[in-house]
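Duplicate of #3305? Posting structure anyway:
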């Protein structure tokens, strides 16, 4: 099957109350690990690249790899630009074969975010490409936001309805308390479910949960056993992700969990096979570790069997 648009995948998920995983990649092992897991579980899948991944591997290679991988499988595969900020990169992605782009102007004032997003929608929809935008600010590791100030950074549900209506976006990423990376919370993990429900009720769009990695013990343990230095890591427990999906999330972004699992596999093989220098023997285990995590996520998100054609 060729690549399908992001909205095709997300509209079905929205109509049927499940979520599709959007997994980040910048190399062959991650991409093939992700797609093999989805094929085995007959799940639709979204693979996405940040602008950083584009700088690392080149947009042409990322598109060619994904199109080739998708053409030999029967499940729907969408290729999405994650956290697009540079208009030139966004335009190139729209023109060259991505089937979804995120415009992340969430650090700009509301009216500016709205007008930039509207411009991207115009350009993208003219070519059948879907658009995701963000409202509110995702908390970063560097932000150190106090819980009392937290609300100011979360999505304003009243703004969300106006934003969705006036931009014509296909999916909305509302900031609801999660953060990127392996150090998401200093205290207890929390997500503002009420806010998700309100935004969903008001705008009806497929919602996107960013910063959704679980950073669970089973993912981190191997990396730590083989020498990784990761004190204080903390993610979003599976239980909270399930509740977010029930409240209206249809796209769940996962990057950190794949990185951590890949790291564990790589550290293990380097430690146990000091004489090995075949990259396939070193990076094959990374691919398998990525595949294992993606399989677990597909089951958690409820998309297994939904990619049957
Ligand atoms: O958009 N992404 C992936 C890229 C994050 C920037 O490096 C996410 O929302 C995934 O977040 P997580 O929880 O895997 O770090
Ligand atoms: Zn994100």
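Output from current build:
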């Amino acid at each position: 099957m060729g690549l399908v648009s992001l909205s095709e995948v997300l509209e079905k998920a929205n109509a049927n109350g499940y979520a599709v995983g959007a997994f980040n990649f910048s190399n062959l092992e991650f991409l093939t690990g992700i797609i093999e897991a989805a094929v085995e579980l007959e799940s639709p899948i979204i693979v996405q690249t940040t602008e950083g991944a584009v700088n690392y591997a080149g947009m042409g290679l990322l598109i060619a790899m994904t199109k080739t991988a998708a053409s030999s499988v029967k499940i729907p595969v969408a290729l999405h630009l994650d956290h697009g900020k540079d208009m030139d990169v966004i335009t190139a992605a729209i023109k060259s074969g991505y089937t979804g782009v995120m415009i992340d102007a969430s650090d700009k004032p509301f009216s500016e975010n709205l007008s930039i997003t509207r411009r991207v929608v115009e350009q993208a929809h003219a070519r059948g490409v879907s658009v995701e935008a963000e409202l509110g600010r995702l908390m970063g590791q560097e932000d150190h936001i106090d819980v009392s100030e937290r609300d100011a950074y979360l999505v304003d549900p009243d703004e969300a309805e106006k934003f969705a209506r006036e931009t014509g976006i296909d999916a909305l990423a509302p900031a609801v308390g999660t953060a990127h990376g392996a150090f998401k919370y200093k205290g207890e993990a929390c997500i503002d479910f009420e806010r998700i429900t309100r935004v969903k009720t008001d705008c009806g769009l497929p919602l996107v949960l960013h910063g959704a990695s679980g950073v669970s013990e089973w993912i981190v343990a191997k990396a730590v056993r083989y020498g990784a230095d990761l004190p204080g890591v903390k993610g979003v427990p599976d239980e909270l992700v399930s509740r977010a999906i029930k409240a209206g999330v249809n796209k769940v972004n996962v990057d950190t969990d794949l990185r951590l699992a890949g790291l564990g596999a790589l550290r293990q093989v380097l430690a146990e096979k000091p004489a090995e220098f075949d990259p396939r023997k070193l990076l094959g285990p990374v691919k398998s570790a990525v595949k294992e995590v993606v399989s677990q996520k597909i089951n958690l998100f409820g998309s297994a069997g939904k990619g049957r054609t």
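Confirmed duplicate; merging threads. The beta strands are 20-24, 45-49, 77-84, 100-103, 130-135, 171-174, 207-209, 249-254. Residues 6-301 form a domain with the TIM Barrel fold (CATH 3.20.20.70).
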